[in-house]
């Protein structure tokens, strides 16, 4: 999730490096990916944490500081805002409802949310989930300046208010004719989930994903502005100064970007999704059916090619103070989640080099940056 192009420089993209699961003296020793993670911090991230899994081996590395002005290290098990990685959770719940026969991907928005969106009868649930609806992205007008972001940090937003911001703008294109990333699509998807189930989106994520997958440090905070448990602080840049934005009401993100998690939990989550633990084969196939074109976006998940020819599946997330990358090979044999607290940008080359170091043969050089959504 990205909140407003004008303040994109303050919206982090996350980097997470791997370290062993069991606490031991070995956990404190630098892992194979430690130099690449240190390079992310050197490029501008105050702090970063990563978990990498390969063939039963788990590496967790940290770099930088948990809080500017202090020497406290980033916690290896720290929690962070995952931003648009939330979209994979939302899509998974929607696809579970499809598998249960309670929802169809070809159902229209009008069917479940009558009168909520202009031309809702011409927009399908599938088009929400793969970003081909053409609906305007509300975060492009949500916060116009970093100052406004900080001033409204505790404001409580309802999903209807977020959608109202979007439908006040003309659509990007007629439904199904093109592709454009829009957080509004996933706010609407969360609203559809609530209408189908009669329960809150967050409770469905808890009941259907967090509990069954054993994601012990993942939560849907709702209107709570706090990052509970061990965590690194996130920042935005205001007037050339870093402002701590760790406490922030994530209702502005809702089902498009609200979730809190850890590197370990996200690696576990994507493995559960891609292995079929959370979805039936037909619905997993739908999730992995990508939109033709450059991004290769499916339903809440997308393909990320690397310079060595390996293709990963996963998602990125950027939200005030935090940025996340969580990707793995299709068979789940290699998994990497990275969280960083970048607020000035400039780490994209270091991030791609980190993923190349993790997934590609030694000596492979970096290429284009990982796509950040």
Automatic annotation (TrEMBL):
Q: What is this protein's record name? A: D-alanyl-D-alanine carboxypeptidase
Where's the Beta-lactamase-related domain? 42-325
User: Signal peptide position in this chain?
Assistant: 1-25
List GO molecular-function terms, semicolon-separated: serine-type D-Ala-D-Ala carboxypeptidase activity
* Species name: Longispora fulva
- InterPro entries attached to this UniProt entry: AmpC-like, Beta-lactam-related, Beta-lactam/transpept-like
This protein's UniProt keywords:
Carboxypeptidase, Hydrolase, Protease, Signal
**Is Protein biosynthesis there in the keyword field?**
no
- Give the EC number(s) under which this enzyme is classified: 3.4.16.4
Recorded hits in SUPFAM superfamilies, A to Z, give: beta-lactamase/transpeptidase-like
Phylogenetic lineage: Bacteria, Bacillati, Actinomycetota, Actinomycetes, Micromonosporales
Query: What Pfam families does UniProt report for this protein, alphabetically?
Result: Beta-lactamase
- Top-rank taxon of the source lineage equals Bacteria
């Amino acid at each position: 999730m990205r909140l407003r192009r004008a303040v994109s420089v303050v919206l982090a993209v996350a980097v997470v490096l791997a370290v062993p699961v069991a606490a031991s003296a070995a956990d404190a020793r630098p892992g194979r990916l430690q130099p690449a993670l240190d390079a992310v911090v050197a490029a501008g991230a105050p702090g970063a944490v990563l978990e990498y899994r390969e063939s039963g081996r788990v590496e967790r590395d940290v770099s930088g500081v948990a809080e500017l002005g202090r020497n406290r290290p980033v916690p290896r098990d720290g929690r962070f805002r995952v931003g648009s990685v939330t979209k994979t959770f939302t899509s998974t719940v929607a696809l579970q409802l499809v598998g249960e026969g309670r929802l169809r991907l070809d159902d229209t928005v009008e069917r479940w949310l009558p009168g909520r969106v202009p031309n809702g009868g011409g927009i399908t649930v599938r088009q929400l989930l793969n970003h081909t609806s053409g609906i305007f992205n509300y975060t492009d007008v949500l916060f116009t300046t970093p100052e406004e972001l900080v001033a409204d940090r505790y404001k409580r937003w309802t999903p209807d208010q977020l959608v109202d911001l979007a439908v006040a703008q003309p659509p990007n294109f007629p439904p199904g004719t093109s592709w454009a990333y829009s957080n509004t699509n996933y706010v609407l998807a969360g609203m559809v989930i609530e209408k189908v189930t009669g329960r809150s989106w967050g409770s469905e994520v808890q009941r259907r994903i967090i509990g069954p997958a054993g994601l012990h440090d993942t939560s849907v905070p709702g209107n709570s502005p706090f990052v509970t448990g061990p965590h690194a602080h996130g920042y935005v840049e205001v007037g050339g100064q870093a402002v701590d934005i760790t406490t922030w009401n994530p209702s502005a993100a809702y089902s498009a970007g609200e979730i809190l998690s850890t590197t370990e939990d996200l690696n576990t989550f994507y493995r559960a999704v891609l292995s079929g633990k959370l979805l039936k084969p037909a619905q997993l196939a739908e999730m992995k059916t990508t939109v033709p074109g450059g991004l290769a976006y499916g339903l809440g998940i997308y393909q990320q090619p690397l310079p060595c020819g390996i293709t990963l599946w996963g998602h990125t997330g950027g939200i005030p103070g935090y940025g996340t990358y969580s990707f793995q090979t299709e068979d789940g044999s290699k998994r990497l989640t990275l969280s960083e607290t970048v607020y000035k940008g400039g780490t994209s080359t270091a991030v791609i080099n980190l993923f190349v170091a993790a997934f590609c043969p030694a000596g492979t050089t970096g290429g284009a940056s990982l796509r950040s959504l």
